[in-house]
Specification:
The protein is mainly beta. Helices cover about 5% and strands about 40% of the residues. The strands form seven sheets. The chain has a five-stranded mixed β-sheet with strand order 10-19-18-13-15, with no helix packed on it. The protein has a three-stranded antiparallel β-sheet with strand order 9-12-16, with no helix packed on it. It has a three-stranded antiparallel β-sheet with strand order 11-17-14, with no helix packed on it. Strand 18 and strand 19 form a beta hairpin. It is globular and about 55 Å long.
Amino acid sequence: MRLVVLVAVVLLGVTAAGSSAVARGAKGCAWGAVAADNACLVDGHACKAQRAALYRRHGFACRAGFLAYDWSQLRRRPLVGQQLEPGSACPVAPRTGELTRVGLNPGFIAWGPGPAWPVLGGLTSLDVPFEFASAGPEYTEWGARKAMWGIDARYVGPTLVRGHQLDGPNEVRFENGSPGFTEEKRLHPVTELRFVGGYVRPAVTRVRALGCYAYQIDGIGFSRTIVFHAVAK
């Protein structure tokens, strides 16, 4: 296997599920909040129009009395990971423990260091079966796999999930199950998932072809990749 490009992933914040983590931010703010002068900024919290300039400096807007995070702050981070030759072995992420702080019963497997993890049912490795046309015509082009996301309950900030193929040109797409799955979402999967705060978030991962892929998970103070292998069901 020839490694064409390898970009180091910065590992910040919480490590594996169940291990110790710093759950408080700068100036006593909750983990994932943005400290700004004497305020702790969190998407969806109340705001004051007269402080609009302060909010803008820290990536927020005040809309109808509530803070709205500027997701381009995370989106501008480039996708990172390995670029592999077609047919190379896929270096899937290892199991790192069990999810404990996301509102799930113990026993669900954690992949990667967190604080956000894909929840993939009873899989014991990240060789992930995807279902294509047999699931319906909307899956002819983009195969599907239910993959919820567990996010540490102590984290209150934004989480952006994207993905790309490591041994080919394809991106990863998604269906966001909050507030619900719809036909529109099935027919038009999107290129990213956005979550604010912790606990469990329903979602579906979509891929165009089998191969080696990486989820990229970005948030306040962390950036992670989790490599998985999309295989036939």
